[in-house]
Every structure is written in structure tokens, then in C-alpha cells.
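Running this now, will post back.
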Amino acid sequence: MALVEITDYGLFCAQAGVYIDPWKPVERALITHAHSDHARYGHKSYLVHHHSIPLLQKRLGNQYYMGIEYGELVNINGVQFSFHPAGHVLGSAQIRLAYKGEIWCISGDYKLQEDGVSMPFEPVKCNTFVTESTFGLPVFNWANPTKVFNEINHWWHQQASQKRTAIIFAYSLGKAQRILKGINHDIGKVWVHNAVHELNEAHVQVGIKLKPWEVLTIDAKPQPGDLIIAPTSAETEGWLKRFAPCATASASGWMAIRGTRRRSSADRGFVLSDHADWIGLNTAIKSTQCENVWVTHGYAATFSKWLRENGLNAIDIQTPFTDQPVMDLPTEN
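Update: finished.
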């Protein structure tokens, strides 16, 4: 029997009696990161990297959280577990399992580009690697983030010169903090939606340094030339009317696809992702020196076929994980 199996509740290690990123309530859950498609409500206990705890407290309230440091070893019924940096968002981890010479690594979501917020991705040598494939096609090839932030700064400066408020939509956890750190604050004042503010505070709580921001309360009055960072859930006609005249943008890896940019309601799209691109996925898998790969969410069937053609024992597995992790808190109180 494999060290890890797929069940109706999620990925399960029977020897240890624990689940990894389970999608139904269980007794003991090991969580790779705090996005809502990986960390769900209702488990009796959560083992996470300690930086994820304040994020989960914002999302799920005061559950029974146990924090672990990267590289720390935990033995559960003979299975040795350790968490290793995934580079996805704050506190994100790959989970390594070792038992009787068999080593697995469940990566969760990851990226190889460094972002100045999360710990950089660390290759984990293993026999079997469980990988995402959200952007598992050759068309996805990320530019250097500095180039992307220069594009965002140029766009923001254009809006400021035309007396418009610039609004950029991005995930509240991960992407929003990257944008806040990467943009040029000399252009104007930066406001953030309350959902972003809550998670910014959680970052500061664990010692992450972010650039200044103002909270976009109901009574707040951003001026033309200011920039607003908001979650995608805020993008409604009524909400946008508060800031007219304004221009909108979306920051996402999906903006690499021309059709997605065309269908987007935003005026502009910037290609910025917290997931590995095609080269990143292949580089990460090669760095593990694994023989077996389980491929999940995204282009799993296509990417696993590619891996098989290149000599790996690869299969695609079905999970409820979404292609685009969403972690948007309620709007302003």
C-alpha cells in the first residue's frame, strides 16, 4: 500500500492517521497553506507552519492550531513529517513524509520566483512528488516580477496624470501583499480593501515588513491619483461608482491568455502569479529527483502526459481544489 492514498476526505496517510489539506472535516489535518481551498473549516486539529496561524485565525476563527517551523521533525506513529518552504504565500509549505525508506512530498501550491514575503521554494528529494499544475502548459512563462511592477507603476502614473483613481484587483492573501511591496509609493497614496488590510495585519504580526497603506473604510475618500488594492469579490458596478472616475486592472497569471484578458471586465491585465509557470513546474519536479509524480488541479491530464513522455511515472488525480485559490474575507463591516 502507498504511504498516501486518495479518499473521499482528501489525501490520507493511514499509517499516521492524518490527512493533508482535507476537503471534509477530519480529526487531524496537516495544512500546506492558508488559502481556503486547502485550509477548510471544521477539522479537530490543524498542524501548520506557525506563520499560517494568524492567517487562519482571520479566516476560520480560533480553532486548535499547532505551529511547526520549517525543517522541524514530527513523528506520528512512526511516520516522520516535516514542513519545507513552498514559496507560494506566507507560511506555505511542502509536507514531507518518510516511513521505512519511502519518502513522499506533498507540495500544495508553490512558485519558484522569490517574492520578498514568503520563504523561497526549497527542493525536497523524494520518491513520490504530489504537484499542482495550475499553469501546466508551455504558454505560461512568467516575466521577471520587476518588469511587471514597472508596468503597474507606469499604468498607475498614467491614471494619476489623468486624474483617475487606479484600482487593481488581486487575491487578498499573497498577491495583494506582493503588489503593496513591489509598487512605487512615490506615485500616490495606497489604499487597501478591509479584506486585504486584515491579512496585511497578520503578515506584520509575524514580522513581515510591508510598505504603508490606508484602510478603505466606508467613509474613506481616496483622491484621483491614488491606488486601491482590492479582492476580486469587490469588483461590482456599485462599489466602483464610489471612486469614479477610475481605471481598473487585474493581476493574475490568467492574464497571460489573450482570451481571458479580452473577457475580463478590468481595463488592464498584468501577468503576476503566485504559482509556478511551465518552466517552474518542470524545474521543481526535476529538483526532487523523484520517480513518481501525482498531478493535481489545473492542467493535470495534459501535464501528467508530458511527464510520462519524459520518463516519469506520472498520473493525474482528481481533487476539489480550484484552479484559482480564493481567500476573500467579508466586505467592510
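The longest strand covers residues 79-85. More later if anyone needs it.
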